[in-house]
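Sample 1 of the test manifest.
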Amino acid sequence: MNPFDVFSDWFMRLWHIPAVAWLSQLVLGLQNGAFYAMLSLGLAVIFGMLNIINFAHGALFMMGAFVTWMLANYIGIGYFPALILAPLIVAAFGLVLERTLISRLYGLDHLYGLLLTFGLALIIEGLFRNTYGSSGLPYSPPGALQGATNLGFMYMPNYRGWVVFVALVVCLATWFLIEKTSLGATLRAATENAALVRAFGVNVPRLITLTYAGGVGLAALAGVLAAPIYSVNPNMGSQVINTVFAVVVIGGMGSILGSVITGFMLGVIEGLTKVALPQFSGAVVFAFMIVVLLVQPRGLFGKAA
Amino acid sequence: MSGISLADAHAVRTGRSGFSRPQLIGIAVMTALVAAAPFLLYPVFVMNVLCSALFACAFNLMIGYVGLLSFGHAAFFGMGAYLSAYAAKNWGFDAELSILLGGAVGGVLGLILGSIAIRRQGIYFAMITLALGELVYFACVQLPFTGGEDGIQQVPRPPLFYAIDLNNDLAMYFVVAAVFLGGFLLIHRIVHSPFGQVLKSIRENEPRATSLGYRTNDYKVIAFTLSAALAGIAGGTKALVFGIATLTDVSSGTSGQVVLMSLLGGLGTIFGPAMGALVVKAMENYLAPFGAWVTVTQGAIFVICVLAFRRGIIGELGAALRLPL
């Protein structure tokens, strides 16, 4: 077959895919995009304040899912309380990490922060793999979110809608907190010039610790949302985080809304690729990253490099 | 990159070879150890160490001398391994051609991916190389010639120069030792050439290097290509030693491991990456029965290195002896 035939075959096949297939992948893409958005938002918030890229982000996302599973199986706490509790627990863990380990690296080259958090990710994942194995633990969504709703043109699984809804609310709340409140103004000022903000009497180290804990909490919340979808397993973080790094490169870490939009957009692009070119769906985000780097190296929403 | 503390930062008098006297002694000791090792240890284990050591030295060329951390170097190592294995098995290439093909593939891939990755710096460079490495991994899962999950197995060890049989482990060992020492000396030659001096100036102060008229991006791409080619040679050699090339060789786990070797041995030192490779591979060997504890231990070493001894084993040794090793 010559290339034109291959292309026209593919195009005809595309033409015959029913609209429902496109729509259901669109919803699935939005759901994955919700995870990308929450994770890349957390990375961007942490990077803005600490100037490190948190390679442990995927492991902390996985911890969020595991804590949810533990709360349910060890002390019988259900999904909705876990939605608040698990991120708080993991954020407290992040707080300890920042105070005891990460804070020792400020002022050094940021590659050291990357290497340290990479090591932490290996430790956390290894410990969970030792205790729970790699096969994955089941966690069912609460009754209220099970089933599907008939939208007229398609059935939408309720849980997918819930994930997208929660992610949107959380992302907008984070944006509001950082851009519209006085705490956020202090935070942004400290990002620009920490020494000056300190001179005004603001406890900047505490602000940094809380920012790290906040970013970690976002990752853990994403983990809670992911628990009923993916089987809870120690590898779930490292699987998603590589894609999230590509998302961060594409969006640039300069803007909150930029991270959110990029996350959702790439989830959708990936979902639609699953319909059009299934074998490339795993690679499309990385391919998109290459295109962005060639056309606009600083990223879609990034400040000048 | 000025914040990164590197062991070779102080200027040293070197002879015509580019080595200082302590370094020459170090190389003599290392060569003697490499020559004696197969009679003292299991040769296949030492070959594994030497392949990893060359890989780590190649990686160190980027992080140690250009100051760029590549988190996707397994792409070059793994593709080198695949191509060498494929050529030896299906095309009947002999050993030196298979290994050189692995290096060529690594180099070409390095040229392509390097030109993309150097468009950003610092941590973005690390994330981009990680993502590109992941892309290569996906490609290897999909492409038919890699054999997917099975990899390329049962690769016969081809003869050297169509004459010398390498099925004897000791014969193979000396080929691997020659490849390692050759690569090691080549890297040293690169680092101490005028080209290498420009690389170091880019690491120390890129705007100033630019203002002196150097096209710094070209230098970075060339260094990346050389590093990738050597990583490909290391991968190709490993594929011939074990007769197998699998997805593990291109996985991000392998990329992380080479970072660990260089950090543990000493970033920017001459002997550090090889020392790091020895320790990491020995640990992997002895801890293998304990499953995921290997990962935990490796993570702990990362944390300890970064917090307590950022110069690594050889870097700290060199600092204690006041010698650049």
